[in-house]
Amino acid sequence: MSDKLSTAIIISGAFIAIGLSLTGYFASQTLYNAKVALNTAEVKGLAERRVKADRANWSVSFSIAGSKQSAVPALYKKTEENQNKIISILKENGLEDNEITPGVIDYYYNEYRDDNQKLIEERHTLTGRINIETDKVDQLSKIRTQVNKLIAQGIQVNNPNPSYRFTRLNEIKPEMLSEATKNARIAANEFAENAGATVGGIRSARQGNFFVRDAGEEYGDTAKIEKDVRVVTTITFYLKD
Questions:
Q1: What tens digit of pLDDT does each residue of 151-201 get?
Q2: 83-95 burial, b for 16+ CB within 10 Å, e for fewer?
């Protein structure tokens, strides 16, 4: 092999080696930049509040029954009297006209016959209902006790538990979202510290739904005056070396 040919081969090999080296450098640099661009941490931030219901809905029903058609007019009059007694108790204990809505008095007729279709008994029933919507949530326990005393007077009253609701969620949303974001950053800082990095700006954020539940309960949101409000945000932070 001539000296010129050997020199050409050596030079050609050097350029190939340099080319491969540069290719490897640019490839690794590209991978490094891609890794830096995706160097993020996704964390969740929780915020909770204990709040008090500010609205209550309550319904009181009452009924009276008789066994003769001729007694229906008297039954209707008695039903109206019972309705007025209940409304008086409600007002005496602090409720106002705009919080009380009397319903229509309903009439039901049932008859009972034997195997020969002979009439054995007939039943005429009148029922009424009074709906209450109020922000006086603390007073309802006392008012319900007073209404139940009508039972001792022979009035058939159905007095179920009110439904308690929290309606001012929009007032506390901004503060809770801010708190959830701060808690998410705390979690990201802990993660970054373990990874030998620092937390940068927010890449993306997803707000979870706000949940209102009866205090201390996993399900149900109308039985208790005390409520727990909860929101979880999912935030992706950039991490810096």
A1: 999 999 999 999 999 999 999 999 999 999 999 999 999 888 887 889 989
A2: bebbbebbeebeb
- In this prediction the pTM is 0.75
- Phi first, then psi, for residue 7 (nearest 5°) are -65, -40
- What is the distance between the alpha carbons of residues 192 and 82, in angstroms, rounded to a whole number? 70
DSSP-assigned states of every residue in 89-144: HHHHTT--GGGEEE-PPEEEEEEEE-TT--EEEEEEEEEEEEEEEES-GGGHHHHH
Q: What's the residue count for the chain?
A: 241
Instruction: Return the structure tokens found at 187.
Output: 């979690």
For residue 26, the one-letter residue type is F
CATH of 55-165, one of 3.30.70.360, 3.40.50.10190, 3.20.20.100, 3.40.50.720: 3.30.70.360
- The token pair that represents 4 in the structure block: 């010129």
CB 74 within 8 A of CB 126: no
